């Protein structure tokens, strides 16, 4: 007979748990037969003693089947997930790009968490946009239209919510196998046949160094393969905001600009890279570069922009936003932060930048906070750029009553969060560090 | 500002916690501000990453001061604690021995736990004996009479009960620092100036090997020294029952027999060794061997037996028990287990032997179980003894309705729990492996 005690003791002693033991434990947790304090002891033992790829797959499996799973009656279904970063709005660009190439893109996205924004929060800046479709509507829309975007639902992998809640307060978040099971249980439930995973690395990301990011990439690919999914992992930089805009409405505008071919280079390139990966994984392009070429054509022809506009309309949003950004909630006040001397931008504290936007009201400090869509930051310079004294580095978009906060923030940004050097920095962060594809 | 998350993360990463952090965490747990699932994550991190002697002292300190502490207005107060074993009834012998030599012995004892019996359960086999004195009565009696025995009270180190309860279900019991803090927080609260600690090692004990036992001994001595206590640690064998009797009334009888000078050699020797240690620690004997000599005199003269009798009377028990074992609850049925062939006893599974007594009703399977004082086992042979076919090895003391259980038990004992060899075993377990004394 299995017991929670024996299972904890086994992992405590560094032994491998069987699939049966992992299932028994998690199902017991969900049924209230295993206590949360037993789960947290096991989580710490997993954190410290590790979890094999077989154990990770078993945990993913039981979390996956703790809720509903989708099974699309359609081909070429490929999903994308990002581990989260500052100014990461690629979803709004790559989803239409891939869909325009014939990929079916089922997106179930999250809300803002800590210092990073959330795809669902951002898209809700568009007046009328509905992210709360039922799973049945979601499935029907995907099969018929090929592109749909909704928010996380409690019906998908409910075990993850419970376990994540415990990890969040017991210092067991940063564990590769636990991160893998959390991400993959949700993504596998969403029914895609291929998954592109954008793993952010840097001072604005969960993964602070490349070795950790590589381990997570391998763990995620291995888990995907065990569940018969085609997998692509991309390790991309998060040592500065992606693109120039951070903040909900501001990021929607930048996404539309990018779909019009006028976006910042880093955002455009990464979106094409990921969208091209989705086209490739779907089987609609023989190679990744062929996929990227197709995505680029969909960008140039304006087809992707049209696909995005249609999705907005279909989900109740005001599609006039494509041509009139004025219908978005926008901040009335702008404070320009300018360089105090000549030099080069050497480094940015991306997490701090994310927290500034939260502080302006662009994200939540607690779950019940209401988001102010209009506020945020736009950057006029990136790492490696030359700045002259008095030249604008960034603009703070804020509300009338935030002047004091904004002055302090400008000070922090110049003195603490952005570092300068007198000579051009030798080594700039790359955009993409590594891409790996695994076919099951 | 301190946070439970940061403290868990620090220990998770193998760093040393400050006294302030440990106090904040445990006081938060007691106040309901730190959750039990956070405590269990920290316990697992301590189990796996260790706890320095400074950290252990801080934990002991905050647990100690979670409840009442005693401070006797008397000299020569020395306490004794055993980590628990099968048939361990030394308390009933060494306490009167030491008290007869002038040591004041304040005993706060536990009830049965798992496969081991409890001192409080055993003494309650004596009709009328009261173990539930208030702490005030306890203190007054100790100061006036020099010997008193009560059960654990919730007033002493209540934090230990909460933490032990969590450890018990999260596989974090067998951690040297956590065991140290649990034992020492209670023992230090009981106000003794010296503590003799009998650490059992073997297949019937918590500590399964000598290396572990030695680590625990060092940890306990170090912690005692930090709190200005004189400490003696004894590592003694628990690979077979101590003495011949296992079971509540049976152990009381064997204790009285030993105080009459007719006890088994191992039990007599260990009791004298420990009592002599108490006399030495109290300052009433210059050396441990001088202490043992004094204890032996108190045994021979019958003074210790008289002291025991007086304690029984003082605490409401029927002191006629000293001369008439018939007033104890005793089992009516006896089943003799005899050797099935010639040979030597090579090994005993002491834990299994303890569990047999629990199964007969001599211990609790759950906290609400009522104890049957009369049942138990008496051994006629020990490890290394020669046995002839048909010769009795042990007797099962049981009730009328347990015949089926007893037949199965006899079978298990002969076939599984006691091993035989045809030649005399080369190496027999010693009684005492190591004794160390530390003066603060």
Q: What is the fold's blueprint, element by element?
A:
2 copies of one chain form a homodimer.
Chain A (H helix, E strand, L loop, with lengths): L3 H9 L6 H13 L4 H14 L3 H12 L13 E5 L8 H10 L4 E5 L9 H5 L11 H11 L1 E5 L6 H12 L6 H14 L4 E8 L8 H17 L3 E8 L7 E2 L1 H12 L5 H17 L6 H13 L2 H12 L18 E6 L4 E6 L1 H13 L13 E4 L6 E2 L4 E7 L4 H15 E4 L10 E7 L2
Parallel strand pairs in A: 1-4, 2-3, 4-5
Antiparallel strand pairs in A: 5-13, 6-9, 7-11, 8-10, 8-12, 9-11
Helix pairs in contact in A: 1-3, 2-4, 4-9, 4-10, 5-12, 5-13, 5-14, 9-10, 12-13, 15-16
Structure summary:
Chain A has 440 residues and is α/β, with parallel strands linked by helices. Chain A has helices spanning 4-12, 19-31, 36-49, 53-64, 91-100, 119-123, 135-145, 158-169, 176-189, 210-226, 248-259, 265-281, 288-300, 303-314, 350-362, 403-417, and strands spanning 78-82, 105-109, 147-151, 194-201, 230-237, 245-246, 333-338, 343-348, 376-379, 386-387, 392-398, 418-421, 432-438. Chain A has 16 helices and 13 strands.
CATH architectural name of the largest domain in chain A: 3-Layer(aba) Sandwich
Which structural class should the secondary elements of chain A be placed in? alpha/beta
Overall tally of domains of chain A: 3
Task: Tell how many strands the DSSP assignment of chain A holds.
Answer: 13
Question: Could you tell me the radius of gyration of chain A in angstroms?
Answer: 22 Å
Strand order of the largest sheet of chain A: 1-4-5-13
């Amino acid at each position: 007979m299995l017991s929670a005690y024996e299972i904890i003791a086994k992992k405590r002693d560094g032994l491998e748990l069987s699939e049966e033991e992992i299932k028994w434990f998690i199902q017991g947790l969900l049924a209230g037969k295993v206590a949360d304090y037993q789960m947290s002891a096991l989580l710490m033992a997993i954190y410290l003693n590790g979890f094999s790829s077989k154990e990770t797959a078993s945990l993913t499996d039981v979390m996956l089947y703790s809720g509903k799973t989708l099974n699309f009656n359609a081909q070429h279904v490929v999903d994308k997930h990002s581990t989260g970063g500052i100014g990461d709005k690629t979803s709004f660009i790559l989803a239409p790009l891939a869909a325009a190439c014939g990929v079916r893109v089922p997106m179930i996205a999250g809300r803002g968490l800590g210092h990073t924004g959330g795809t669902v929060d951002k898209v809700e800046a568009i007046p009328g946009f509905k992210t709360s479709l039922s799973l049945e509507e979601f499935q029907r829309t995907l099969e018929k239209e090929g592109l749909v975007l909704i928010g996380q639902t409690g019906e998908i992998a409910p075990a993850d919510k419970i376990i994540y809640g415990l990890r969040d307060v017991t210092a067991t978040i940063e564990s590769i196998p636990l991160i893998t099971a959390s991400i993959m249980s949700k993504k596998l439930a969403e029914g895609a046949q291929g998954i592109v995973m954008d793993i952010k690395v840097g001072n604005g990301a969960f993964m602070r160094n490349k070795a950790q990011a590589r381990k997570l990439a391998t763990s995620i690919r291995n888990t995907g393969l065990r569940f018969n999914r085609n997998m692509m992992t991309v390790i991309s930089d998060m040592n500065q905001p992606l693109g120039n805009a951070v903040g909900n409405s501001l990021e929607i505008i930048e996404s539309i600009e990018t779909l019009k071919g006028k976006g910042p280079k880093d955002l455009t390139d990464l979106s094409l890279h990921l969208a091209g990966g989705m086209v490739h994984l779907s089987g609609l392009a023989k190679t990744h570069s062929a996929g990227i070429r197709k995505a680029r054509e969909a960008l140039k022809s304006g087809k992707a922009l049209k696909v995005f506009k249609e999705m907005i309309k279909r989900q109740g949003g005001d599609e006039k936003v494509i041509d009139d950004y004025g219908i978005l909630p926008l901040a009335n006040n702008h404070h320009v932060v300018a360089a105090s001397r000549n030099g080069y931008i050497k480094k940015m504290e991306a997490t701090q930048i994310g927290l500034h936007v939260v502080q302006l009201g662009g994200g939540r400090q607690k779950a019940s906070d209401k988001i102010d869509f209009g506020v945020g930051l736009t950057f006029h310079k990136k790492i490696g750029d030359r700045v002259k004294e008095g030249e604008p580095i960034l603009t703070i978009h804020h509300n009338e009553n935030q002047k004091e906060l904004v002055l302090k923030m400008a000070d922090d940004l110049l003195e603490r969060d952005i570092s300068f050097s007198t000579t051009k920095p030798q080594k700039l962060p790359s955009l993409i560090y590594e891409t790996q594809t695994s076919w099951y």
